[in-house]
């Protein structure tokens, strides 16, 4: 009888919609390959509301690292990010380089269809939400939930 109860619980958990499905590790970065190329983005919210940017994505030969470059209209409006899997530490990570310095992110990977990370300096959640093959949204939520900025991107 106890074995039957354990099996019923296992089946219920496997089909429950509230259980998160996650993909971490090097395969999580490889799954981002659909981003390869250049995108045009518009920021909604925050101090950069309405600002347009161009963003390009490329990958290392082993597909464990993704380079993200973004630039806008002014010389100071740029950043480079490296998203990847560190096999030595066995975790996903990101490094963001801007004219104002360097920031890091702890990357959770793919969770329920979105790619999720958290900024280490301020706790903001950064989420990539694919909207089909030609549209993506980057959503940045402050740690306390008081602010949300969206970067709406299209090819």
Description:
It contains 2 helices and 11 strands. Strand 8 and strand 9 form a beta hairpin. It is mainly beta and 155 residues long. It has helices at 2-15, 26-30, and strands at residues 22-23, 37-44, 52-59, 65-71, 78-86, 91-98, 101-111, 114-119, 125-130, 135-141, 148-154. The longest helix has 14 residues, at 2-15. The chain is 12% helix and 51% strand. The protein has a 10-stranded antiparallel beta barrel with strand order 2-3-4-5-6-7-8-9-10-11. Mean pLDDT is 87; it is low at 1-19. The chain is globular.
Summarize this, please?
This protein is mainly beta and 155 residues long.
List the main descriptive attributes of the protein structure presented here:
155 residues, mainly beta, globular
Query: Helical residue percent?
Result: 10-25%
Distance between the termini: 57 Å
Oligomer: single chain
Which residue ranges are poorly predicted, with pLDDT under 50 across at least 5 consecutive positions?
1-19
Describe how the helices and strands are arranged:
Blueprint: H1 2-15, E1 22-23, H2 26-30, E2 37-44, E3 52-59, E4 65-71, E5 78-86, E6 91-98, E7 101-111, E8 114-119, E9 125-130, E10 135-141, E11 148-154
Antiparallel strand pairs: 1-7, 2-3, 2-11, 3-4, 4-5, 5-6, 6-7, 7-8, 8-9, 9-10, 10-11
